[in-house]
Each structure stands twice: as C-alpha cells, then as structure tokens.
Design brief:
The complex is a heterodimer.
Chain A: E1 5-10, E2 18-22, E3 30-34, E4 40-44, E5 58-60, E6 63-65, E7 72-74, E8 90-91, E9 93-96, E10 99-103, H1 104-113
Antiparallel strand pairs in A: 1-10, 2-3, 3-4, 4-8, 5-6, 6-7, 9-10
Chain B: E1 8-10, E2 22-27, H1 31-43, E3 48-54, E4 60-61, H2 66-70, H3 76-79, E5 80-82, H4 84-89, E6 92-96, E7 100-104, E8 109-112, E9 117-119, E10 122-125, E11 129-131, E12 144-146, H5 150-162, E13 165-169, H6 173-184, E14 188-193, H7 205-217, E15 221-224, E16 228-232, E17 239-242, E18 247-249, E19 252-255, E20 259-261, H8 264-268, E21 277-279, E22 290-292, E23 297-299, H9 307-321, E24 334-336, E25 344-348, E26 356-363, E27 368-375, E28 378-385, H10 391-399, H11 408-411, H12 415-418, H13 426-431, E29 438-440, E30 445-446, H14 447-455, H15 461-468, H16 478-489, H17 510-519, H18 525-531, H19 543-554, H20 568-572, E31 575-576, E32 582-584, H21 595-607, E33 612-615, E34 621-626, H22 631-640, E35 653-658, H23 661-664, H24 672-683, E36 692-697, E37 711-716, E38 719-724, E39 736-741, H25 744-761, H26 768-775, H27 777-786, H28 788-805, H29 809-814, H30 832-836
Classes of the chains: A mainly beta, B alpha/beta.
Chain lengths: ~110, ~850
C-alpha cells in the first residue's frame, strides 16, 4: 500500500544519543530517538510516571532517562526499566536513504488514543 | 593478456543459430553475474547457452580486492576470478566493453551501446551499483573520482605517483580502504566524514574512536562531523572547502560516501523497482523471464552492498533456473576492514532492541574492544576491535542462532576460553591458574602475591589494592582480584567495597576516574570508557554527565563539550517544568536591575504569554511557561536589552545575592553590592560539580543570608569574613568560617581559589556542604588559606578556565547555534484531508 510510511525528516537532524519531536495534529507528540549505535525508535513523548517529555532525556544504550525524575524507559518496548512500572506507546519507525519514516497506522493509532 | 583493450569480444562454441538450448543473457560481468553462472554450471552445464555483457573492458575480477591492489599488496592478475579460458571452456560468449543500453521485454531482446541486439529466453540483470556522488559544486572537476572499478584504481595510482595531498570524502569501509592505499602510496591523506564516528554503520562509538586514533597514528588526518561544501579548483581539483570554511588542499579527491543500486535499465524497461530492482525469493523480477541478482536488487525490503549476500542470492537463483527451487531468505552480514594491521570486525545488529543485553570487554593496554549483543540467549550482533580472531566464531553462532546460555559467562573471552577446556566457571578458571600467573599486568603482581596479601589481612578490594598494588592502576584485573578474594576467604568475603563506584558501568570511584583522566591525559568520553574498561558501550545517565564535567574541568578551552551528555536544563539553557515548558532567568548582576531590563522582561512576558513571573530566592526574576521552540526568540529579546543567561539551570555559579551595603544602609560597613557585582562578573559561566551560590552581606546583620551559601562574605569594619559550605536546602547547614581578609581584592582571590578547589576535587553532584564534611574544613583551610603559593595557583587556574567559559550561551542559541534543539523534526497531520472537507 502506498503511503504506509510518512517521511518526517532527515536522520541527520537527530544527534547521536539524542531525540527530536514530531507533533501530531489532534494527537500526542511523538519523540524520535537515535542511539549511540545508530538505532532509531519512536515513542510517545510522555513519561508514564509524570508525563515528562522523554525527548529531552539523556539517551544511553537503548534507554532514555526521563528529564523530570530520571525514570528509565526502554526505547524498544516503551516499558519502564528496573523496579519502576509503567509503559509508553511505541510507534514503528524505520530509516530509508537517510530519511526517518514513521508508520502511518502507528501514528494515527497514537493520535486517536489521545 | 591485455585487459585494457577498448573492446574485446570472445566468441566460442557452436553457431548460435544452430543451438537449440535456451539463451540466457547476463547484463553485468561483475562478481554477481559471473557467480550466478558458476552456480548454474555447477548444477547443469547444458541447459542454457550463455552470453555475458560487461561495461568494463576486463574479464571478471574480484571487486572487493581493489583495495589491496591500490595498497600494492596484490596485482590485477591476482584478483581475476575468471580468465578468458573460463569463458572459452564453458562455452560462454563475453561481450566486454560494450554495455547494454536498452531492454525490450516485448521482443525479448537487449541492445548494446554498439547497436548490437541479442535475443534472450531468460535475462539476468546484474548491473551492481554506482558510487553516490554528492551534489556539490566542483564534483565534475578532473581529479575527482570514485572508488568502484579498475579505472578508478588506475587513476588513483597515477595521481599517487605525483605525490601531494589527497582528500577522501567518506569514512566508511570503502573510503578508509582508499585512504589507507593512498597513504601507503605516499600521499598525505585527509579523510572527511560527515558523521561523528568512522564507519558508523558498522561500528559503535567506542570502536570508531579506537579506529580513528589508530589511523591518525599512521599519519592520516581524520575530520569527523565535517560537511563538504565545495570542491575547489579551476582547470582541475585544487582542494575541498568544508561548510565551516576550512579549505583542505588536494590534487586528488576520492568520493566514497556510498553506493546506489544501478536500476536505470530495469526502470526504463518498466520492471518493478523500489530502492533496487524488486525480486522474489528466486531472484525473479516482476517479469517472469527477467531475473536480477546482486547489489542492484531489493529483496524483502533489503538492499545489500556486501559480497556475502551475493553468494547466497546466486545459489537460490541457480536453483530456480534448474527448476529446483530453494529460495533466498535474506542475509545476515558481517564486515571486516581490509587495512593491514587494523583488526575491525562487525556483524549483525548491535542496535539491540527489547531484551538485548551487551557484553563488553575492554583491554586498554592491548587496545582491544569487544562487544557482543545477546538476546534471548542468542547472539544478535558483535563488534570487535583489536582482536578479531573470534569474529567468525561469533558470526557462526549468530547465523546458526545457537543457544549460548551455557557459555554465556565466558562468551566474551572467545572460543578458546568459552568452549575449550570445559572451564565453565570463571572462578574455577582463576583457581586453576598457577601461582606465578600474572594477575595485575600494570604492577606485575602474581597470583601468589595477591593471595599472600589477602591471607595477611587484606580482606577487601581496597585493602588488596593498597597492600600489593594489584588492580590499583588500570583496574582491568579487578574481577580477577575479586575472584581471588572470594576463593581465598570463602564466605568471609563480603564482596563490599569501601569506595563507591561512579556508577554501575565502572568499578572505579569518582576520585579514581578524575585522577586517571589527568594522569593519562584522556581527552574524550569514549577514551575514558575504553581506557578505564567501562562495562557498557556508551555509559549511562549518571556517568556521562559526570565524565563530561570532569573532562571540561581538566582541559579548559580544549575539551569539546558533549551536549548529549548534559542534563536537559543545561542542554536547553533553561529550567524544565513539570508540564515540559521552560522557565527563563536572565542574569541580574548582584541582584541589580534597571528600567531597560525590566521593560524587556515585561515585554517578553506579554509577547510570549508567559503565565507567571516570580522573584526568586536569589534575587532574580523567573519567567515561566516558555515553550522550547520560543526560547531562542525570548533570549534574543533579552540579549537586546543587554541581559545574558542567568545559569539558573546549571551545575554552575547561580547567583550572587547582595544587600545594599555602605552605599545606602546606615549599618553597612563595606560596598557589599559592588563587591557582589564584581564577584558575579568574575565567576559567572563557570561549570561546577553542582550548583553554587554566593552572597555578600554588608554587615553582621547578614541580610543577604551569606551564611547559608556555598561561599558567603560578611563585611565587617576591619575587612571581610569569608564563609564556606553553607546550604539552605533539604539539610540546612550554616557555613564554616574559612578566614578573615583585609581587602576586597583578597576576598575575590580567595573566592576564586575556593571555587577552583571545589571544581577540581569535589565529586560530580556533590554540593560544597557534604564535600567539606567529607574532606574536613582543615583540609580546605590548608589549601586555600595556609598555602599561599597553592592558593595563587588555584586562583590562576580558575581565571584561565573562566577565559573560555564566559560566552553567553543564549546569544549563541539566539544566533542559530544548535537550532535543532528547539525545532521539531517534522509534523504529522493525519486528519488533514478530513479537515479540508
């Protein structure tokens, strides 16, 4: 099906061990993460603990530490790590020819859930 | 043999017209096309009559061996896979140097450049890939080449014969091999790489750093994070200009930034093309009589640029051609850098994912880094640097999806250890070591010596370290020493250490790390992690900010701050609030302000609809509710009124709080306001282990609350009382009196010395209050008060550091630096169509 993936921008705009945001009209903002070894993940930009913007946390390994209270979230599953509990939705994402592509269905599902 | 003839046609076998066999035409005389035919011939040598068209005037050669040819390690003859005799013996017609320019699928013919048209029953497209040429001005100048075929190698050899400077654009596998070859041929080579680390697709940051260091030691200049703006030159190339304005002279520029599947013919023939020519599991395209193989195809969404998948594709293709369908299932790839003396290996996926765990081994003395990624008891990826002997073993385990749970403990030590002597228990392995086996290589301590030290009363790691020096230097034998403690003491060994480690990524404490950074001259976070044997690939949210600070403190003006190792507030230069917006505190020197500043703040509050403005405890105004996107504009407005960052967000000097002092107050003894302003001018912008607050009170009534600050001055008639280590936070602590000085100059010098001692010796995130309680007031006095020469040196080091740190970060951001921090990557409007109706 054409248009299964939405081009949201160049991978080069996300620093290694960093994140950038993609606002969704009518839905929740999505954070696109890039790890030190160049894997890319997309999560709703909201910590399950106190709704902190995960995109602003420190990325290490394949996890991010929430900037508000340091809860660690697995980028792959969206689950809180260690003794904490909670989960944030993930959105399928891939990189093609240097562009970041978000799953249209995933992003829409996120928007509808909001 | 002359491989350089412009056109070469080898015709053999029966007259085509009399041959009843199906005619298989191959477009592409490269590795994939010929390998496919080899596989076919091995299965059935009689089924097809074969014609191969090649664009290059050569027989089939091993393209991946071009690097050794460039490096002078091999000759062209040595990399030929199939010579003329192979074509002749197998009855294959080779049309070399006459590329196919069109496919007519209706007529089932191909037409070559010369006009020659040949009919096919089955067509195999193996056109490979083309080098990607970055579209910069000057890309077509003579002297700018790619690194793809024998022609390119000849051009490089001709240029190298004249010597001079070469630039290689692209620090991937191919670019580094080109750079290596040109260096060996006597050129002065600069590698320009867009990304922050070399070979970022294959290596992680740690291995990339090791590789860069090794290549630099061989005389290459490696510029990472470097973006090419233009290739300069009149008649031919003279140099490369980067976007930051740097110009690098070059008589040769090699573009090796990547490859693109060559799909031109297929697209023009109307075949289904994505990134590559789309094929099914049997390498059949959207036309059942047209097949495709190699780097030009896209299988199951994947395009490959390495040689191993090609072999697997060719097997499935040949199976299909002889009606014995097996089907290609995609490939897992591994990479090895072909640069003599540098062992680099990478395989599979080390991007981890859910449930993936890293096993990391670092050996700084031998320059080794190994990382194996394990998921569900199976290896999913590996990166090896310095010792790649086990690369093929890991790759084999990975491809076969072997369960490694039995050998997991020893996996990282390699095949010999893990599956060799049956020493499945690391402790048993240590127990089996002979008495004279060396445990600590740095200090030459044997196993017998360590055990003797333990038996004579050293029952903790620290005691062993001070008793016999084992594990006291680089720390890589810490685990061995701990196992010896455990073996020797049995249950009596508590396993507890008296020194708390910096974080879970290391066995070193803060003080050890700081000492080693200075002693070993370490200059970057990856270097510290490698030399001090970090157990994670890139640290955690506790150690990265700490290392960033320690490096910044150790090498002022030299160390490049790592933004991604900063907590959000320091990265955004504002304070994040619970709703994700930010608060902004402009600096007001000593708590003084004026109408212009107040108007600018009022204007910002209205312009950006800030819902609240508050006076802070440190005598500043705090503007709340600013969105990250608006921060640069807010700062630009505040800058325009002369205000700079207040650093209310940093582990840094926050505020100097003052009272009105002798200028206004009837009790004031000294100019506390003026002194506060001067101290703030001296100290602002300095990064510290934690936040740092100063106050200056004009008399002992202490209206500025100087005795609960990190550094407080209480003015008295005869001079200035200097107080340190106060804290008004969770645990209130009044200051200790450091000393009394007579002049304002002395007060400022002592302040600078005290701050520098704190900057150099306190642990990251340790306020002055717990630091002083830990080291003792007497120690601080001995350094700052009693040792005059030492104090002057501390003050001087602080001022040197300050000369690099007093640039307003807001002005830089307002001018566009790190613009991305404040912008969205993109936007998504899923319901835009509905909304438009």
């Amino acid at each position: 099906m054409i248009g299964d993936w939405i081009d949201v921008g160049p991978l080069a705009a996300i620093p290694l061990r960093g994140a950038r945001t993609v606002p969704v009209a009518g839905g929740e903002e999505i954070a696109i993460f890039r790890t030190g070894d160049d894997a890319v993940y997309a999560l709703v930009n909201r910590c399950p603990h106190k709704q902190g913007p995960l995109s602003q946390g420190i990325v290490h390994g394949h996890a991010v530490a929430c900037p508000l209270h340091n809860m660690r979230i697995s980028l792959a599953s969206g689950e809180a790590m260690g003794d904490d509990e909670g989960c944030v939705p993930t959105i399928p994402v891939r990189v093609d020819a240097g562009r970041v592509l978000l799953s249209r269905m995933g992003a829409i599902a996120t928007a509808l859930a909001a | 043999m002359d491989f350089h003839a412009s056109t070469e046609i080898v015709t053999s076998g029966d007259d085509a017209g009399a041959d009843r066999r199906a005619h298989l035409v191959v477009i592409g005389n490269g590795m994939a096309g010929c390998r496919a035919i080899e596989e076919l011939l091995a299965r059935d040598g009689t089924r097809y009559r074969v014609t191969i068209f090649g664009g290059e005037p050569h027989v089939n050669y091993n393209r991946i061996m071009l690097s050794p040819v460039l490096a002078g390690e091999k000759t062209f003859d040595e990399i030929v896979i199939n010579g003329h005799d192979w074509y002749r013996d197998n009855d294959i017609e080779l049309v070399a140097g006459d590329p196919v320019v069109a496919i007519d699928r209706m007529a089932k013919t191909v037409t070559a450049n010369s006009g020659r048209t040949v009919a096919y029953d089955k067509l195999l497209i193996a056109t490979g890939s083309d080098p990607f040429i970055i579209p910069v001005p000057g890309k077509d100048l003579p002297g700018v080449i790619s690194f793809r075929d024998m022609n390119d190698v000849d051009a490089m050899l001709a240029a190298a014969a004249k010597g001079g400077d070469a630039v290689v654009i692209g620090g991937g596998l191919l670019g580094l091999e080109a750079a290596h070859g040109l260096t060996l041929r006597g050129m002065k080579v600069t590698v320009i790489h867009l990304m922050p680390t070399l070979m970022e697709r294959q290596l992680d940051e740690a291995a990339g750093w090791l590789l860069k260091t090794a290549l630099e030691a061989r005389g290459q200049t490696i510029l990472t994070g470097a973006d090419t703006a233009e290739i300069v030159g009149d008649a031919r190339v003279e140099g490369v200009r980067l976007k930051d304005g740097t110009v690098i002279p070059a008589s040769l520029v090699v573009m090796a930034v990547g490859i693109r599947p060559n799909v031109k013919l297929a697209r023009e023939a109307g075949l289904d093309v994505g990134r590559g020519i789309k094929v099914d599991d049997h390498m059949v395209t959207s036309d059942p009589d047209v097949l495709a193989v190699g780097e030009c195809v896209e299988h199951d969404g994947n395009v490959y640029g390495l040689v191993a998948p090609l072999w697997e594709m060719c097997r499935s293709l040949a199976d299909g051609l002889v009606e014995n369908h097996t089907g290609y299932k995609g490939s897992v790839t591994s990479t090895k850098l072909k640069v003599a003396g540098l062992d680099v290996f990478s395989a599979g996926d080390f991007s981890g994912g859910e449930g993936a765990e890293d096993i990391v081994l670092r050996d700084a003395a031998r320059g080794i880094y190994k990382r194996v990624v394990v998921k569900d008891d199976r290896i999913v990826g590996a990166v090896l640097y310095g010792d790649t002997a086990d690369g093929s073993w890991y790759f084999d385990l990975l491809r076969k999806q072997e369960d490694i749970s039995e050998i997991r403990e020893l996996l990282i030590f390699g095949q010999a250890y893990a599956s060799g002597g049956g020493q499945a228990d690391p402790k048993a392995a240590v127990a089996a070591l002979s008495d004279d086996a060396e445990i600590c290589g740095c200090n030459g301590v044997s196993k017998a010596k360590v055990i003797q030290t333990i038996v004579s009363g050293a029952v903790s790691l620290d005691a062993v370290r001070s008793g016999c020096k084992a594990s006291a230097s680089c720390g890589s034998c810490t685990n061995l020493v701990e196992q010896l403690l455990s073996l020797t003491l049995g249950e009596d060994y508590g396993g507890e250490r008296t020194v708390k480690t910096l974080c879970k990524c290391t066995s070193f404490g803060h003080d050890d790390v700081r000492r080693e950074i200075v002693a070993q001259g370490m200059r970057s976070i990856p270097e510290v992690m490698q030399r001090l044997h970090w157990s994670t690939p890139d640290g955690c949210s506790a150690c990265r900010p700490a290392l960033n600070y320690y490096l910044l403190c150790a090498w002022p003006g030299e160390y490049a701050d790592d933004q991604q190792s900063r907590f959000v507030n320091e990265r955004m230069h504002a304070n994040i609030q619970k709703d994700g917006t930010y608060s902004v505190v402009p600096r007001m020197w000593g708590g003084l302000t004026n109408p212009r500043e107040l108007r600018a703040i009022a204007d910002v509050v209205e312009k950006f609809n800030a819902p609240m403005v508050k006076v802070t405890g440190g005598q500043r105004l705090d503007i709340f509710g600013i969105r990250k996107e608006d921060l640069p504009a807010v700062w630009a407005d505040l800058n325009a009124a002369g205000m700079v960052s207040g650093h209310a967000y940093g582990k840094s000097l926050r505020t100097v709080k003052t009272c009105v002092g002798s200028e206004w107050c009837r009790f004031g003894t000294q100019d506390s306001t003026g002194l506060g302003v001067r101290i703030e001018r001296m100290t602002w912008g300095s990064w510290m282990p934690h936040k740092f607050k100063i106050a200056v009170s004009g008399c002992p009534r202490n209206c500025a609350e100087a005795t609960i600050k990190d550094f407080g001055i209480v003015c008295v008639d005869s001079g200035y009382e200097l107080h340190v280590g106060g804290n008004g936070g969770i645990k209130v602590r009044a200051t200790d009196l450091l000393c009394k000085v007579a002049t304002e100059r002395q007060a400022m010098d002592y302040c600078a010395a005290f701050i520098q001692l704190y900057r150099e010796e306190a642990r990251y995130l340790e306020r002055t209050a717990p630091w002083i309680e830990r080291v003792g007031l007497d120690y601080v006095k001995s350094r700052v008060v009693e040792d005059e020469i030492g104090r002057e040196a501390l003050t001087a080091r602080f001022l040197v550091s300050q000369s690099f740190s007093q640039d307003d970060p807001w002005a830089a951001r307002a001018a566009g630096v790190d613009r991305g921090q404040h912008q969205h990557l993109g936007e998504f409007r899923p319901f835009q169509l509905e909304a438009a109706e």
